[in-house]
Amino acid sequence: MRIIDSKLAGVKLIEPTVFHDQRGFFFESYNEILYKGGGIQSDFIQDNHSLSVESGVLRGLHYQLYPKAQTKLVRVSSGAVYDVVVDIRRGSPTFGQWQGFILSAANKRQLLVPKGFAHGFCTLVPSCEVQYKVDALYSKEHDRGIAWNDPTLAIDWPAAEVIVSDKDASHPLLAEAEINMVYEG
Questions:
Q1: Which of 3, 4, 76, 120 could bond to 61 as cystine, CB 3.0-4.6 Å?
Q2: Domain encompassing residue 7
Q3: What are the strands, taking DSSP E only, across 31-71?
Q4: Are 28 and 108 in contact (CB under 8 A)?
């Protein structure tokens, strides 16, 4: 397994060791000892699984307020997505900056999205299944989001036209969003 630091402190790209033979492949999608040895200290307590049936489905940008903020470990088990994280930690030197990653069933990469980051993805092909572990349960009361098309973020989404839920279409701009995450250096 290889753990790659991103330009945003705390965000990590994980490349698992994959064993291939004539039958197919095998890999450990999660191994607590290896992950903790690689600096990933989260205690995951819930697994989530989404299916997006069309290309261009955009989900996000989502986060939960403290004390229910979540660290996520994201992977794609079918299809491919453009996965985006945005630093929303007040006082962070990278506040408001984003980074995008291609996650796919083919590359088997995983993305660690720490607390203090908004997260979203856009499907690159039809029939995408995204699975992610979280270290805190979903809390409707703490659920928040940022507009996926916020011009100050200027995220370079890969689809000319996207399909978003009514909820995601109504998220505020970053400048107007309720955020209680603070950079701790």
A1: 120
A2: 2-176
A3: 46-52, 58-64
A4: no
